[in-house]
């Protein structure tokens, strides 16, 4: 009787054979395995969780709802296409696991491949990759004995799955069945740098290198819809200058982006050799000014054409700039002083401002490039078109307020003239307006004019007090991308 009472009061691990305990433990999920190992000394000695078990636990935790699990980075368009979100809303609230440093980090710490490849994507909580059992197996030959082979076998079985339809044809499984099985190899930018895995590479059909150098690595980051190069490299500068931007951004005059207020700009993260922190390129006062350009360098690790230049530099210095001496705004302020930072920012600001100003002014004058063609098609209005052409401001380098006022008057004249031309020959008018330039210019001239006036107001504020640029730069968290949110 005493023996039965003692057996009844004995701990569970003494009542159940150890072989059965091992079988039960192998059916736990990674979070339950770690929790059980911390319950008492017996299970801690039995399980002895290692790095692999903690990695599996972290990969399961990143799929929880409070870390963004279930939030898709893709959306379906009205045409049925699946596209990636180019706004920071779905990105900012999520965290991803780095299996090297074992931390949950925001998206700005990873490159695109680590987050967007199908095998590296974070699965939804209900998908198979988010609800796997632990791979823990006791072994007399070490904790990792045979584990890699078992993982590869499990992944191969998933990839070889087929769906057999009624016709007998075998289809591959959908993406959600294969998503997330390669997350074990996901590493953040800093861990990849320490492992010397970040090396320059040669893109297809290019002679220049991407990826920076071993000392100053450059990693492609997110692609966001931004208004212009000015908004891309000086985010929220208008708040510091107390110059509120226009509520309606000007439309884009480029193929595939007609009548769109934004363009997809690619962001880059650079590791500063001074403070050893990853920051966006706007913190280094460099970057391509055209939306289609990429940040590249030559075989000697010298940037090409993507930094501010002045008249005191030689032709060689204007064409290339070594990455070796690159420093972020905070490092320049600490090493060279606030005045040196202000001077460097002012030079970069003028270059970006001039590029965007010329782009806006080309939009204001865009219709005059086609007026001769209109006069040849609508012969009855040739004299009136020639009258407008005599006063055009097409050859002026930079516009002033008086010139823009004249363009506004001429735009109103052409709008009235175009109404009569369209009424006289609607078929020909529809053919001419197929590319959308004429309606875009007439309907959104005021938006481009408002953007132009705002740019000049920002320039006047900066020229009056250049120190505002340093205030803006030192108050920015360049390691985060939230300034474009």
From TrEMBL:
CDD domains with a match to the protein in the record: F-box_SF (cd09917)
PROSITE patterns per the UniProt record, alphabetical: FBOX (PS50181)
Pfam families with a match to the protein in the record: F-box
InterPro entries, per the entry: F-box-like_dom_sf, F-box_dom
UniProt organism field: Clonostachys rhizophaga
Occurrences of domain F-box (ranges): 10-58
Stated name of the protein: F-box domain-containing protein
């Amino acid at each position: 009787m005493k023996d039965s009472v003692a057996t009844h009061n004995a701990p569970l691990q003494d009542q159940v054979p150890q072989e059965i305990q091992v079988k039960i433990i192998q059916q736990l999920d990674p979070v339950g395995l770690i929790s059980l190992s911390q319950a008492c000394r017996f299970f801690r000695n039995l399980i002895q969780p290692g790095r692999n078990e903690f990695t599996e636990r972290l990969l399961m935790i990143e799929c929880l709802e409070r870390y963004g699990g279930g939030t898709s980075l893709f959306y379906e368009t009205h045409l049925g296409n699946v596209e990636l979100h180019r706004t920071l809303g779905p990105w900012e609230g999520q965290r991803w696991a780095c299996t090297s440093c074992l931390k949950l980090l925001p998206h700005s710490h990873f490159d695109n491949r680590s987050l967007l490849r199908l095998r590296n994507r974070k699965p939804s909580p209900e998908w198979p990759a988010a609800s796997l059992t632990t791979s823990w197996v006791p072994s007399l030959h070490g904790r990792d004995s045979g584990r890699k082979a078992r993982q590869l076998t499990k992944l191969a079985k998933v990839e070889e799955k087929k769906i057999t339809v009624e016709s007998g044809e075998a289809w591959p499984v959908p993406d959600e069945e294969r998503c997330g099985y390669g997350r074990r190899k996901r590493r953040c930018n800093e861990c990849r740098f320490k492992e010397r895995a970040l090396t320059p590479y040669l893109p297809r059909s290019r002679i220049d290198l991407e990826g920076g150098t071993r000392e100053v690595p450059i990693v492609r980051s997110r692609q966001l819809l931004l208004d212009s190069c000015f908004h891309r490299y000086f985010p929220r500068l208008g708040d510091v200058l107390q110059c509120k931007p226009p509520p309606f951004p000007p439309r884009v005059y480029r193929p595939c982006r007609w009548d769109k207020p934004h363009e997809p700009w690619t962001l880059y993260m650079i590791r500063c050799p001074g403070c050893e922190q990853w920051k966006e390129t706007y913190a280094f006062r460099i970057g391509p000014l055209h939306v289609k350009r990429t940040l590249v360098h030559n075989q000697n690790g010298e940037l090409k054409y993507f930094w501010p230049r002045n008249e005191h530099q030689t032709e060689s210095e204007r064409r290339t700039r070594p990455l070796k001496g690159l420093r972020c705004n905070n490092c320049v302020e600490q090493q060279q002083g606030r005045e040196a930072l202000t001077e460097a920012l002012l030079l970069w600001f003028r270059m970006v401002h001039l590029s965007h100003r010329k782009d806006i002014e080309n939009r204001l004058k865009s219709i005059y490039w086609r007026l001769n063609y209109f006069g040849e098609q609508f012969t009855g209005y040739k004299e009136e078109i020639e009258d407008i052409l005599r006063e055009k401001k097409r050859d002026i380098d930079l516009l002033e307020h008086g010139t823009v006022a004249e363009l506004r008057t001429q735009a109103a004249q052409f709008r009235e003239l175009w109404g009569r031309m369209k009424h006289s020959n609607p078929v020909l008018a529809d053919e001419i307006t197929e590319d959308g330039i004429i309606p875009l210019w007439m309907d959104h001239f005021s938006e481009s004019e408002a953007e132009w006036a705002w740019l000049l107001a920002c320039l006047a504020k900066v020229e009056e007090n250049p120190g505002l640029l340093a205030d803006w730069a030192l108050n920015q968290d360049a390691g985060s991308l939230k300034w474009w949110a």
